[in-house]
Amino acid sequence: MTTWTNFAGDQACQPAVFERPADTAQVTAAIERATDAGRNVRVAGGGHSFTDAVLTDGTLLSLERMNRVLDVDRVSGLVRCQAGITLGALSAAMWAHGLAFANLGDIDVQSIAGATATGTHGTGRTLPNLSAGLRSMTLALGDGTTMEVDAQSDPQTWRAARVAVGALGVVTEVTLQAVPAFTLDGVDTTAPLEQVLDELDELVDNNDHFGFFTFPHSPLAMTKTWNRTDAPPRPPSRASYWFHDLLLTNYAYWGVCRLARARPQWIPAINRTASRLSGSTHRVDRSYRIFATPRRVPITEMEYAIPREHAAEAVRRVRALAEQPRFDVPVPLEVRFVAPDDAFLSPAGGRATCYIAVHQFAGLAWEEYFREVEQIMIGYGGRPHWGKRHFRAAEDLRPTYPDWDRFAAVRNRLDPQRRFTNPYVAQVLGA
Predict the structure, then answer these.
(1) What percentage of the chain exceeds 70 in pLDDT?
(2) Could you tell me the pTM of the whole model?
């Protein structure tokens, strides 16, 4: 029997059937077999979710073989690809055609379908999450048919399908709107946290992309300020990349976290030292190389979207909670900003948004800490990132999404038999 696990190794299932289709026809055939056998269907993309969204004892489809770019129109910037291609592979392929994503998150190993279905995002006040860049998609339904969905042909389904947590069907292909390839001037440095929070609106508004990390117990923020430039890319040498992005940012920090786990009483001093030693870097490179960096330290994560105007206050409150002696938190908060969009279940739907992510190192207790952070976020009307840990259910999520019932109507129409559900989907979207 096949066992599927996510990238972090903290979610696993043993599906009755595990299939790796290579195209839309093979996906629809797999769905038909599952329907005939009375099995539900779930899909795995890059396996980068912290929730149990993928888990099933029915049919599990992996999209790892559906990783091809199908068409590129350099003039319009429209790119057609299969749903399983990763953001990193797609970025490199688009760059070869003079195109790029307008924005990306800081990890690029997710599939394009998984990233958009969960509302994955980067940072930039004028830039919405990745799903807003989609222009059409092919959706394989539970009755064995497929439909091409876009804003013109079916606006309601389009606004539902862009962020749907796999609850409407299997996305097999997407068309996305790329932009001309661009270079970013990226400065990562440290600054006093209170100064950053006091000047937050100016920092967010006056830069193309701004975000920051901050460790509990440290007075510093580690800021990321990225702006477009006409200068040519100047990628770091292989030795510099290995030293900074792999040795220091990953392996050395992994060792620091292991020390913190073994000696939790040292965490305040460790966090202050890690902040001071993070230093500054200045890079000018292809956009996608600045946006995304390798992340190999094993963590679990929760992230919430709140109205941007509450950002500074919420950061202060979460930091104060994380610094309480009953919590051992050797990892930082991450803070980013995005523009509103109109997908029914987008966490950033209809409002300028601040995302605040909290993390915990593998092997350290996380649930009580995350639950209390969640209560802070709920007080601001917070909405959880669909691919990261949270404890919400449909009955209390519904009031936070003005278009919840419109999404439910589309779901009832496209999947009346609930072929594409599992316990997680039933919990967060209803049975």
Answers:
(1) 100
(2) 0.96
